[in-house]
Automatic annotation (TrEMBL):
PANTHER family: SET DOMAIN PROTEIN (AFU_ORTHOLOGUE AFUA_4G11040), UNCHARACTERIZED PUTATIVE METHYLTRANSFERASE. It comes from Aspergillus lucknowensis. This is SET domain-containing protein. It comes from the Eukaryota.
Length: 699
């Protein structure tokens, strides 16, 4: 990248080994204007941390004022306008931008152009010692500086590739608008304010500037919105970022002080805290990221399809609560398992998947019965916890697992093959990619745990049982896949917080259903089901060679039988033939009978899907033939289902179609063995298979 018109700065650009000399000069300049550095710290430099501050043997106590940056050395919009506030002045120091330009473009752009102007002055600038310490144009590693194909290749597949495009477009639009205004103002050196220098100065402000609060001791009334003014604090901005570091910037009348609010031991680095930034924000704003960033999270792009229940619910929310200040598109986050800024009482799943994300996916995965219970308030839209609504939870988890797996595979497959990072930008991009993979992988372990609980039956729910199951779950992870700290944190997340899934064992594979029935009917129902399966598979071309697990009529036949038994016994007079169905099945039968219109005898139903209807029609013919020639297959169940003559038969075409539609609505497709992906480092040819389960809620 070109260095603009500052050959003196470029020619004196220090190599890494002379960085300490540059900062020593900066410290002398700062002290000459009333600043200082705590005597118990010193300036250090290494290839890992760059230039930074370390503690001497004595250590520093809490509340120590490590750095005092004089007000006179700060650089901001107030210098651009040559502001005077009582006894404190903010001189422009030789760069007098036209007032009409400043008023036209606003504080942010005026500050950027002012910094460019000071850079162009070179050694004549008042801030020359500070400008020497800054990364020079072309040496920054933020996204706009990923220009070479070899660098961009390391961003492919990540969210950063689109973020970079958007960032450059935003910068270009602002630059062209502001540059045009500067030219219109007849400013003499307008042509020297190049695009390259604008990107550099903009990046310096984004990556190093502080809030205008740091000047509140001398400029109590800013006169413009605080968020529009950023302040550069020479020497304080030397400090590296450490998430959760306890620090404070104190505004004074003569200086801005950097204060540590915790003891820092000998030979430890003094770090700043840029706030709870995730790795994408760090890459966007600062040009680096952290492999073990506890504040990391991933933003998930989720848009409500037009006409979807989620979009309709959002529109209704805006109608009901027009004054509520909310982002109707999120935020949708997947959190790092170490993420510290969580409410203490939120469920385990919401500590990984933000409530807004979980609720949105639940609504998109909900069936019509569940959507009828939808709750809309000013701050959220959700399907409430109620009997029969946990199906939406496991359906949402299944969709989230698929998204996590897709995200992992995309990042793995898009990594440059057989290459190692060749420069600092590529190293940061690789660190970002790996941190995103680990974030999704650990989230996958959490989601798979909840989904597994939905598929396990006969659990008693004790603490010892939970720990045993968790140990078995963690044993499925490849050895060494996660560090001990990560594995421990995953288990803590699972054990310390209640699950949104209050009940276990609500998803049933076909072979699990038989055990829900009373013992006295299990044999007869199994014989009937086996005979139907064998006969239809032999006589229906679409079912030939199909496995029992994949046989599409098992759920509908089970639903038909349970409902027939429930109806028969509910019509009996009190005391005559009490319903022998378990309470769980009886309540489930009532649920689906109440919410799905049952067929009548005088109208023949047909499914909307032509392929399904063709399959059901062929099934009807085969079963009717069985009914005529092998009646004993069904007569053994007559004592439980009642008479089966005529159109009221429990396996009539209408009832089978009704059960087909019901079990489609009340079923869940879940990923099979979601943790298998963790055992492989393959980035392609990965097939994600799913299995069908029938949802029958616990009481």
């Amino acid at each position: 990248m070109a260095l603009g018109c500052a050959p003196d700065l470029a020619s004196q650009r220090p190599a890494d080994e002379s960085r300490l000399e540059v900062y020593s000069t900066l410290l002398q300049w700062m002290r000459a204007h009333g600043g200082d550095l705590d005597e118990n710290v010193y300036i250090s430099h290494d290839s890992q941390r760059g230039t930074h501050i370390r503690v001497k043997r004595e250590g520093v106590p809490s509340n120590a004022h490590i750095i005092k940056t004089p007000i006179a050395t700060t650089l901001s919009y107030f210098n651009a306008i040559d502001h005077r506030s009582g006894e404190t002045n903010f001189p422009a120091h030789g760069i007098n931008l036209p007032r009409e330009f400043i008023d036209s473009v606003g504080p942010e752009e005026a500050s950027i152009f002012f910094l460019v102007g000071q850079f162009l002055r070179g050694s004549e600038s008042f801030w020359y010692p500070y400008l020497q310490s800054l990364p020079q144009p072309g040496s920054l590693t933020t996204l706009p500086y990923y220009e070479e194909d070899e660098d961009l290749e390391w961003l492919e597949g990540t969210s950063l590739i689109q973020a970079r495009t958007q960032k450059i477009a935003q910068l270009r639009d602002k630059y062209e608008t502001s540059s045009s205004e500067l030219s219109k103002s007849k400013f003499r050196d307008a042509g020297k304010y190049s695009w390259d220098l604008y990107v550099w100065a903009s990046t310096i402000f984004v990556s190093r500037a502080f809030s205008a609060k740091v000047l509140s001791g001398v400029v109590p009334d800013l006169g413009v919105p605080e968020e529009n003014i950023s302040v550069l604090l020479p020497f304080i901005d030397i400090l590296n970022h450490r998430p959760l570091a306890k620090v404070e910037w104190r505004a004074g009348t003569e200086s801005v002080d950097f204060v540590v609010l915790e003891e820092v031991g000998a030979d430890q680095e003094i770090a700043n805290n840029y706030g709870p930034r995730n790795n994408e924000q760090l890459m966007m704003n600062y040009g680096f990221c952290l492999s073990d960033n506890p504040c990391d999270y991933r933003t998930v792009g989720l848009r409500a399809p037009p006409g979807s229940p989620l979009q309709i619910a959002r529109e209704r929310q805006q109608e009901l609560f027009p004054d509520s200040n909310k982002d109707t598109e999120g935020p949708y986050y997947v959190f790092n398992i170490f993420y510290p800024l969580l409410a203490p009482d939120i469920p385990m799943e919401h500590s990984i998947f933000s409530p807004a994300l979980f609720n949105a996916v639940s609504i998109l995965a909900a069936n019509q019965r569940e959507l009828e219970t939808l709750e809309i308030s000013g701050h959220e839209i959700r399907i409430p916890n109620a009997y029969g609504n946990s199906r939406a939870i496991v359906a949402a988890l299944s969709q989230i697992i698929i998204e996590l797996i897709t995200h992992i595979v995309r990042l793995r497959s898009s990594r440059p093959r057989a290459k190692q990072p060749g420069n600092l930008k590529q190293i940061h991009a690789e660190t970002y990619r790996n941190s995103q993979v680990r974030l999704s992988e650990s989230a996958l372990v959490i989601a798979a745990w909840t989904l597994q609980r939905a598929q396990l039956h006969g659990l008693k729910g004790g603490w010892d049982e939970t720990k045993r199951l968790l140990a078995e779950h963690m044993a499925c992870l490849p050895k060494g896949k996660f560090s001990e700290a990560v594995e421990s944190r995953i288990q803590v997340r699972i054990l310390e917080r209640p699950s949104v899934l209050a009940k276990t064992g609500e998803l049933f594979a076909p072979h699990d259903l038989l055990h829900l029935l009373p013992v006295e009917v299990q044999k007869h129902f199994q014989e009937c089901l086996s005979a139907v399966l064998k006969t239809t598979s032999r006589n229906m071309s679409a079912l030939r060679g199909i496995t029992q697990r994949a046989y599409p009529f098992q759920f509908p036949l089970f639903a038909c039988f349970v409902v027939a038994v429930h109806i028969k016994y509910s019509h009996n007079p009190p005391g005559e033939g009490e319903n022998f169905l378990p309470a769980r099945l009886s309540r489930w039968a009532s649920l689906i009978l109440d919410h799905y219109q049952t067929p009548t005898d005088d109208v023949a139903w047909a499914l909307e899907d032509e392929d399904d209807e063709a399959l059901l029609s062929e099934f009807d013919e085969v079963v009717e033939t069985m009914r005529e020639h092998n009646a004993t297959v069904f007569s053994n169940l007559e004592a439980f289902t009642g008479g089966w003559q005529g159109d009221a038969w429990w396996l009539s075409g209408n009832w089978v179609r009704w059960a087909w539609m019901v079990t489609e609505q009340e079923g869940v497709q879940t990923p099979e063995d979601p943790l298998a992906l963790l055992s492989s480092n393959k980035s392609e040819n990965i097939t994600l298979s799913t299995a069908a389960y029938l949802y029958i809620p616990q009481e």
